[in-house]
Amino acid sequence: MAVTKDDVFNKVRTALVDALGVDEEEVTPQATMVGDLGAESIDFLDIVFKLEKAFGIEIPRKELSPEDILTNADYVQDGKVTAAGLAELKRRMSFVDFSKFESDPQVRNFSNLLTVGDLCRYVESKVGA
Fold first, then answer.
1. Rounded mean pLDDT of the chain?
2. Short-list 129, 57, 62, CA closest to 92
3. Alpha-carbon distance 10 to 60, whole Å?
4. The pLDDT of residue 1 is above 80
5. Which residues pair with residue 77 across a beta bridge?
């Protein structure tokens, strides 16, 4: 049986509620993982583990967290992601809406970019939903 977008959202929500101790109502597609749900880097390890188990997929760390771009002088200058850096982020993270980040591409703003909806789109791309 095929996995639906609703199935993906429900399993992602369950993983986030378990990993972050948030209420189900807080987990909306628009909620940011860090700013709204309070995820910290250690939480992402737990979230990835729960998603891999729930969906039977492998999630390489670099696909959700491309630190190599954010620490590369070719892609970051004066604390801002360059046009080349943005292009590489978009290429690697096609499931993320970068429109808000593009208006102020400070590296420090990157951590608050990923939303629940982005995470769902990522999983959907892995499971063919």
1. 93
2. 62
3. 22
4. no
5. 80
Q: Which domain holds residue 81?
A: 5-127
Q: What's the pLDDT tens digit per position in 42-98?
A: 999 999 999 999 999 999 988 888 888 999 999 999 999 999 999 999 999 999 999
Q: Do the strands 76-77 and 80-81 form a parallel or antiparallel pair, or are they unpaired?
A: antiparallel
CB of 20 closer than 8 Å to CB of 38? yes
The CA-atom distances, in angstroms, between 30 and each of 27, 48, 100 are 8, 19, 13
Among 43, 64, 60, 69, residue whose Cα is nearest residue 118 = 64
Separation CA 88–CA 71 (nearest Å): 13
Q: What would the two tokens of residue 42 be?
A: 């250690």
CATH number of the domain encompassing residue 97: 1.10.1200.10
Higher pLDDT, 16 or 99: 16
